[in-house]
Amino acid sequence: MTNPYSDLPKRAFWRSGVADHSPLAWPDIYRPRFDIDRKMRITCAGSCFAQHIGAQFKRRGYNFVDLEPAPPMLARENWHKFGFDLYSARYGNIYTARQLVQMLARGDGSLEPSETAWIDPDGRARDPFRPAIEPDGFSDAAELARDREWHLQQVATLLDNTDLFVFTLGLTEAWECVADDVVLPTCPGTVGGTFDAAKYRFKNFSFLETLTDMNRFIEIARARNPAMKFLFTVSPVPLTATASDQHVLVATMQSKSILRAVAAELYDSHDCVDYFPSYELVAAHPMRAMSYMPNLRNVASEGVARVMDVFFGSIGGEEPMAEAESPTMPARPAPRAAAQDDDLVCEEALLEAFGQ
Question: Domains, the chain, ranges and CATH?
Fold first, then answer.
């Protein structure tokens, strides 16, 4: 007897594609939809896990776009602390699709949020949309405004300097301003600012809302740059905490399921979109949580390295280039090593302190 399953490859069956292999060696799990080479201008954004992806593109000698490099006087060990060398501009973590779309709108001037500055008790100012980039805040609101003006000028040019936009979908939960529905990367009162229930409200984006925002992002990007391609991933990092009134495990599964379904819909709807299964390579149950640290949240450096090796092995960039060969990176130690936990800048992780 013949049927549609008769001639399917081994990767299509659970036993031959998963169960018969070590979880560290699933063959043929990712087939790139389009070529990615070292000449492509690659831009990266997203949640904390995206920092690993950007770092590996740089370490392996790809043409990684960085429109806001660290100033020469800042010691390299402080680059991440001040929001440099994380992404393609100094915008910090972008956790939701709505935050991404609104960042571009702020960059082109079509959105001017009512929220402008959070003033600390000592008079120093924090950017509500980048609260962690200055650990001690700006000296005052005027200095913040000057830095933000420069930053948004770079954001306005981001799409024009991109051939491949890599974005990691991280969360569906967010906090937004009641006055204008503008989304913040953190809840006021955690990293900076003061929480006021009359000014801020919790928002948990649905599948349809997230899909609409991501389609809007693609529309904006392709209008500026018709040849742009997109590589989407879903962060395997669970929620640190939830404000949804659900158990945090249930809230995590809901959020990640929505984001994974959105990524699938985008892949099916757009030939210019590819999806890489970093989420599955870390969080799927055959992995037995072996890629996580003991807290079952942070991804161990060995797990990150495995994910990155699968990706770059699939696109033909298995080995990191020698430092002298790399056109985009100054010398760095241990070019193949994944970023350690303490190298990441993750405001969402700070919520853990409130659960002690």
Answer: 33-171+207-329 (3.40.50)
